[in-house]
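User: Sorry, what's this?
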Amino acid sequence: MLNQGDVKPDRLLKVAAALKAGGAAALIALGLFSLLIGVRTDQGPTGALVLSARPGALAALTAMAFVGGLLRGFMPERSRLAALVPESLMVTLARFRPWVGAALLVFALLLPVIFYHNRYILDLGIQILTYVMLGWGLNIVVGLAGLLDLGYVAFYAVGAYSYALIARTFGLSFFVCLPVAGMLAALWGILLGFPVLRLRGDYLAIVTLAFGEIIRLVLINWQSLTGGPNGIAGIARPSFFGIPFSPDPQGFAALFRLEFSPTHRVVFLFYLILALALITNWVTIRLRRLPIGRAWEALREDEVACRSLGINTTMVKLTAFAMGAMFAGFAGSFFATRQGFISPESFTFSESALVLAIVVLGGMGSQLGVALAALVMLGGFELFREFEQYRMLVFGLVIVGIMVLRPRGLVATRAPSLVLPSSEGDRRAKEGKG
C-alpha cells in the first residue's frame, strides 16, 4: 500500500514539470514575439519609420503561452483530447456523425434563401464551397494515394486559364468549356505524374512545388497568350442555359417575370459551385469503392507491398494525379467565370498551402473532415477580419491547437471502402455459440 507521503513527491514532480513546460513556452513566445508584437513600426511626419514599443501586448502573449504550456504539462501524455472531453460525450458525438453531413447539405441548400439580401454571406459561401471542392480533389492525391502535392494550385490555374482562353477565342459557353478545362488540367496532371513516379516523401514535395512555380512563371512571362502580369479581363459570365442575368427583355428576370436584381447571378453561382462540389464528392466516394480506389489506399499504406500484390503502381499514381487535377481544373474554370478576371497573383503557393492545410486538418481521406476544415478555416478567418493585426496570429494558434488535440485531423476515422461479409463461423463465434 502507498502512504500519503509517497504521493506528495509525485505531485510535486508533476507540478515542477508543468512549470518547466510553461516557462519554456513563455521563453519561446518571448523570443518569437519580441520583434513581431513587441515593436510596432509607424510612418513619421517626415516619412521615416518610427519604432514604438508595445510591452503590454508582448506581456499578454507571453502570459498566454505560459498558461498554455502549464495546462499542457498537467495533461496526461496519452489521449489529451479524451482527458478534456468525457468518453460518454465522445460516444454521443460519434452517433450523430452520420447526420452532420446531411445537416451541412441542408444548410447549404437553404443558405441563399436565408441570406438572400446579404451579399457578403453569399460570396463567403461561394468561396468556402470552392475550397471544399479543391480540398476534395487534393484529398484523392494526398489523402487516398498518399502522394504529397505542394503544387496543386498549378492545375487550378490551368483550369482557369483554359476556360478564359477558350471562351474568349471561340465564344463558347461555360458548360461547354468546363469539361474541356477539366480534361486539359488532367492532362497536365499526367505530365506531372511521369517525372515523379520514382519519388517519395520530401523529394516528391519538392518536385510538385517546383511544378507549381513553373506554371506560375509561365503565366507571367508568356504575355502573348496569358496577358502576363496583367492577366485576362472580360471573361464570359455563366448564363442560365443560355439566358443571361441582365436587365434586358431577354434576361433571366424578364423571362421569369421577376424584378431584376444582381443577386440572381450570385445565387446561381452559389448553386452551381454547390453542384460541382457534390459531383466531386459523389465521384470520389464511388472511386474509393472501385478497385482503383482500393489500389490508391494500398499505395498510401505501403508501396512495396502494393507492388508485391501485382498492382501497377505507375497507373495508380497517374490516375490519382489525373483525377485530382481534373477537379482542380473544374474549380479553376468556375473561379474564372465568377471573377471575370484572372491573373498569376491568384495562383501562388499560399493557395496550395491553404488547400493542403484543409486536407490535413480535416483528416486525410475523410470527405466530411475536409468540408468541416474548410468551413472552420475560411469562416473563422473572416470572423477575425476586424482584428487585422492579430487574425493571422490567432489563425496559426488555432491550427496548432487542432494538431495538438487532434493530430489525425478533425475527423480521424472514416468508413472502410470495402467490407467483407463475415462467415457463419465468425458470426457464431461472436455470439458465443461456437
User: Anything to note?
Assistant: The radius of gyration is 26 Å. The longest strand covers residues 39-43. Confidence is low (pLDDT under 50) at residues 78-82, 429-434.
